[in-house]
Design goal:
Blueprint: H1 3-24, H2 37-46, E1 54-58, H3 64-73, E2 76-81, H4 84-96, E3 103-107, E4 120-123, H5 127-140, E5 146-150, E6 161-166, E7 176-183, E8 190-198, E9 201-212, E10 215-222, E11 225-227, E12 229-235, E13 238-243, E14 250-257, E15 260-266, E16 274-283, E17 297-298, E18 306-307
Parallel strand pairs: 1-2, 1-4, 2-3, 4-5
Antiparallel strand pairs: 5-7, 6-7, 8-9, 8-16, 9-10, 10-11, 12-13, 13-14, 14-15, 15-16, 17-18
Bound molecules: S-adenosylmethionine.
């Protein structure tokens, strides 16, 4: 290679290295604002956090959520934060409180973190960051995993529960916090079939189910006659719904495993529930697409931006 060509190649490599470095040195998506301790306790309460849970705190700051969960309930897990200094503070605090063996803190980007082990995820981020995170949560978290956020939501994925508590020492905005819980839903969408014993022999049932996040809807038939499917609910891997009108509704409840739902059905008129097993003969796909991105973001000085 001659002199000018070598110099050109060297400049090209230098530029590529610079671009790579700029792209990988990612700026924080959210400023550091600690969650007041009464909110931390309420978050752990709403998430029903207890022994046996594995908690991941996304953007862990000084580590207070993970450390409290470990100290109070013996919960293990880890927190991640982009800020090395905060990670150091969190590690030292965990050691000081005697839970350094239970909770670990890593300096890393939450978007590059494998969340698969979590039974509980906590986050005090921003709506816009939560929305970017949403596909990752559905991809990596097991059905039934609880996600608890402080003040910020996941757009059109509605929380399963929400509480508001007084926070006299809140660093910004009104002295209150919203705490929200989402339970990652299993995917029940598709065509399901089952039979139930009837007076004249087995009765064939079919339900064609669609699902948007944890909202389940569809149509059903019994022996090819349309029946009303109502009151469908999903919580993690559990489902319940009624078939038929109020006068003669069958109440189904069960849990999904692969293409099978096993549970029971309460027939109209009381009596002992019957065992119920449904088989999915055609899989669908839960809709997790965003339809609600256009929310306003208003800056509030001295704290997190206010997002509606
Ligand atoms: C509002 S604070 C919450 C701290 C803590 N979870 C709490 O509730 O007290 C948000 C934290 O997220 C961190 N953070 C922002 N973007 C991040 C990212 N992409 N990956 C990891 N941490 C991030 C910030 O450094 C900050 O400490």
């Amino acid at each position: 290679m001659n002199g000018p060509a070598a110099a050109f190649l060297a400049r090209l490599l230098l530029a590529a290295a610079f671009c790579w470095q700029a792209a990988s040195a990612r700026a924080s998506d959210v400023p550091y604002v600690p969650t007041p301790m009464n909110v931390v306790d309420a978050m752990l309460g709403l998430g029903s956090v207890g022994p046996g849970d594995y908690l991941i705190d996304l953007g862990s700051g000084d580590g207070r959520i993970s450390i409290r969960a470990a100290a109070r309930f013996g919960v293990s897990g880890f927190g991640v934060d982009l800020d090395d200094n905060l990670v150091g503070i969190a590690r030292a605090a965990a050691a000081k409180q005697g839970v350094g063996d239970k909770v670990k803190f890593e300096a890393r980007n939450l978007f590059d973190t494998d969340l698969g082990r979590a039974t509980v995820v906590t986050a005090y981020l921003l709506n816009s960051v939560n929305l970017r995170l949403r596909p990752q949560l559905f991809e990596q978290l097991k059905p039934g995993t609880r996600i608890v956020t402080h003040d910020f939501h996941f757009g059109d994925w509605q929380p399963d529960q929400k509480i508001t508590i007084d926070v006299p020492d809140k660093a910004y905005g009104p002295p209150r916090s919203d705490i929200m819980l989402w339970v990652v839903p299993a995917d029940f969408s598709g065509v399901w079939q089952w039979t139930l014993p009837g007076a004249g022999g087995d009765v064939r049932h079919e339900a064609r189910l669609s699902q948007k996040f944890q909202v389940l809807y569809g149509r059903a038939s019994a022996q090819d006659r349309q029946v009303l499917l109502a009151d469908a609910k999903i919580r993690g891997d559990a489902v319940s719904f009624t078939l038929g009108d109020a006068a003669g509704a069958q109440r189904y409840s069960g849990r999904i495993s692969g293409n099978t739902i096993s549970g029971e059905v309460q027939l109209p008129g009381g009596g002992r529930p019957l065992p119920w097993q449904a088989t999915r003969i055609k899989t669908g796909k839960m809709d997790i697409s965003a339809t609600d991105r256009g929310r306003m973001q208003v800056a509030v000085s001295g704290g997190l931006p206010k997002e509606q």
